């Protein structure tokens, strides 16, 4: 049996939080605990999975606001991994105070991700892909043998991440998608930070943002 993946739609912005588990070692990871940390911790405990790490694609509040609650619901404190270029955003509570509220982002990230970094979950190899544009320290998690890309807010079903926010950069986002999404095989499944899953092939053909870019540029 291969890697197990559960999706939880959480919080006011319907963020996709993902629980990944290796069925043999029972080690688990949560990508983007945006809210409802207790619910995610309970789902893992019910399966006998041990969440040891939290991996953050980027530090917007809707991807980190459940991390404090999640960490406190676990028997052992998890390690948090994130790209250091989003630490400023993490320290600003992911921008939540700009919208008039506060969050508990949980344990400070101590595992700094970089482009090309190899992570492991049991026997599964996971590659970190630095994809700035929606935020400076945005990372996607690519599982080459499973053909899965956890894309955060870089690319969605027939859409892309917004860049009209502090730290956003439309040129960087275009280059990130061209270099680190469109270079993947068409069959790779994209599991985004919001909305339904899609594939690289579908977005290559039907994503109106990608279609508007001049080919081979960037
Ligand atoms: Zn975001
Ligand atoms: Zn988001």
Q: Might you state the CATH topology name?
A: Metallo-beta-lactamase, Chain A
Kindly provide the radius of gyration, computed on alpha-carbon positions and rounded to a whole number of angstroms: 16 Å
First and last CA, distance:
40 Å
CATH architecture: 4-Layer Sandwich
Major sheet: arrangement of strands: 1-2-3-4-5-6
Q: So what's the oligomer here?
A: single chain
Helical fraction equals 10-25%
Folded structure, characterized:
The structure is a single chain. The model has no long low-confidence stretch (mean pLDDT 96). The longest helix is centred in the first third of the chain and has 11 residues, at 37-47. Strands 1-2-3-4-5-6 form a six-stranded mixed beta sheet, covered by helices on one side. A six-stranded mixed beta sheet has the order 7-8-9-10-13-14. It has one domain: Ribonuclease Z/Hydroxyacylglutathione hydrolase-like (Metallo-beta-lactamase, Chain A, 4-Layer Sandwich). The chain has seven helices and 14 strands. With 218 residues, the chain is α/β, with parallel strands linked by helices. One zinc ion binds next to helix 2.
């Amino acid at each position: 049996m291969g890697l197990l993946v559960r999706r939880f739609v959480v919080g006011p912005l319907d963020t996709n939080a993902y629980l990944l588990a290796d069925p043999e070692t029972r080690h688990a990871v949560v990508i983007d605990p945006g809210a409802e940390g207790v619910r995610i911790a309970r789902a893992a405990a019910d399966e006998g999975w041990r969440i040891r790490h939290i991996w953050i694609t980027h530090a917007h509040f809707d991807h980190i606001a459940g991390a404090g609650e999640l960490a406190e619901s676990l028997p052992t404190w998890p390690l948090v991994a994130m790209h250091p270029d989003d630490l400023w955003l993490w320290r600003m509570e992911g921008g939540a105070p700009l919208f008039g509220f506060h969050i508990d982002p949980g344990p400070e990230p101590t595992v700094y991700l970089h482009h090309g970094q190899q992570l492991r979950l049991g026997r599964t190899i996971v590659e970190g892909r630095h994809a700035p544009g929606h935020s400076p320290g945005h990372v996607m998690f690519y599982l080459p043998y499973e053909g899965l890309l956890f894309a955060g807010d870089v690319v969605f079903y027939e859409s892309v991440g917004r860049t009209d926010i502090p730290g956003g950069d439309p040129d960087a986002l275009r280059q990130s998608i061209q270099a680190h999404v469109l270079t993947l095989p068409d069959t790779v499944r994209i599991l985004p930070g919001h909305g339904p899953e899609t594939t690289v092939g579908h977005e290559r053909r039907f994503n109106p943002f990608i279609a508007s870019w001049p080919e081979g540029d960037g």
